[in-house]
Amino acid sequence: MSATLSVDRSFLPLIRELVRTYQAFERYSAAHVEQLGLTPAQFDVVATLGNTDGMNAKQLGERTLITKGTLTGVVDRLLLKGLVERLPDPRDGRAQIVRLTPLGQQTFERVFPEHGAHLARVFARLPQAQRDALEQQLRALREAFEKETR
Predict the structure, then answer these.
(1) What pLDDT is attached to residue 139?
(2) pTM of the model
């Protein structure tokens, strides 16, 4: 006989709603970013590098939602568009700094506020108190997961 484990599954609707919310956000966000002439990953890199002196691949990977393997290709395509450049890292002769070109900085200054305004239209539909409560609840959930992975 196999023992039947009794597992509380009352959290499953929460997970389902969290995933569906993230997917809806990604669809809404990605469609607009693509209208701006970038892929979501390219936007992530441009937004991360905006108003900085650049960063090495490790720093860029830590600050974006892009895996290391994908990041190289994204940076390569931004390089072809003339939006980023790779420079030797003065602190590490083996590494490179990725930074926005003047065209990349202009692109950042155009697309970042435009996309922020696009997202703000949806968030504005929720009262500030509800947005604050959602932020606190999501932070508590993230912190609970982080506590378990330390």
Answers:
(1) 97
(2) 0.85
